[in-house]
Write a structure and sequence with these properties.
Helix content is 43%, strand content 5%. It has 168 residues and is mostly helical.
Length: 168
C-alpha cells in the first residue's frame, strides 16, 4: 500500500522496464501446399491394392527394388559413376513409411512391393499425393507389379482422385 502511494505521489522508485517483445519466428520461405488428396489415395490403396497384404520383403530385397525402379526411371548411363538410388533406412522408430529422392524409410510392416513402389513414386514427384504422384505410382504399379493401367485409372476416377495425364 505504501509503495503504491509513494509511486502516486511521484516517488523516486524507477518504473519496471517493459518486457521485451518475443522474437518473431522466421517466416517460411515457401509454404508447403496442402496435400489435398492424401486421405483419398490411402482409401483407394486400401480398397483396390491392399498394400500391406502379400509377402514381406527383406531390407535387401527392398533396396534392390528401389534401385531397379530408379534405374528404370532415370536411366543413368554406364559412364555416370555419380548416380546413386535413394538411400534406404530401416525405419526403426517410425510409425509411417516415407520416401523422397534422397532417402526411403521403411518400418517392418511397410516392406511390401506396393508400399515400396508408393514411396518410390514420392521420390519421382514433388506434389505429395497430388496428380503427378498418382501418375508416377500408377506407372510403377503397371511396370513392376503387372497391374492393368486402365483398370487402375477407372478405380481412381471412381474414388475421385486426380491423376496427371500420361507423359508428364
Amino acid at each position: 500500500m505504501f509503495h503504491r502511494l509513494f509511486v502516486l505521489l511521484g516517488g523516486g522508485i524507477p518504473a519496471e522496464p517493459a518486457p521485451e517483445a518475443r522474437p518473431r519466428r522466421p517466416a517460411r520461405l515457401q509454404k508447403r501446399p496442402r496435400d489435398f488428396q492424401r486421405q483419398r489415395v490411402y482409401a483407394w490403396e486400401a480398397a483396390v491394392l491392399a498394400p500391406t497384404h502379400g509377402g514381406k520383403l527383406s531390407l535387401g530385397a527392398c533396396e534392390r527394388l528401389i534401385e531397379e525402379v530408379f534405374r528404370w526411371h532415370e536411366q543413368p548411363g554406364p559412364q555416370d559413376r555419380s548416380w546413386r538410388p535413394p538411400r534406404l533406412g530401416d525405419g526403426r522408430g517410425r510409425r509411417h513409411a516415407c520416401g523422397s529422392r534422397e532417402v526411403i524409410k521403411l518400418p517392418r510392416w511397410a516392406r511390401t512391393r506396393t508400399i515400396v513402389l508408393h514411396e518410390c513414386a514420392h521420390g519421382m514427384s514433388g506434389d505429395g499425393h497430388g496428380p503427378a504422384f498418382v501418375r508416377a505410382y500408377v506407372t510403377l504399379l503397371c511396370r513392376f507389379q503387372g497391374h492393368d493401367g486402365a483398370a487402375l485409372e477407372a478405380s481412381l476416377r471412381a474414388h475421385k482422385i486426380a491423376i496427371a495425364p500420361p507423359g508428364r
